[in-house]
Amino acid sequence: xxxxxxxxxxxxxxxxxxxxxSPTHEGITELHDSIFFWLVLxxxxxxxxxxxxxxxxSSKRSPISHRYYNHGFIINIYIHIILLFYYYYxxxxxxxxx
Length: 98
What we know:
Layout: H1 23-56, H2 73-97
């Protein structure tokens, strides 16, 4: 009579979300996908920059580099604050407009 094969239920060792049953869940899934994309992109970029710094830095080639640790500190703080507000706006706009 009732076919249970077409019902959506969790599977053992399932990776990912189940099919959404409401627009709210679709919005949450889309938000998750957007955040995860940017998270992976940022992680790859930071790893690449860190790896290039670790592999190419030599204290014998530039012995006075320790004098300039604070170079660009203020602009870096400003950029991060602006990005923080942008991400909050993006996330809350996604949540409350769908």
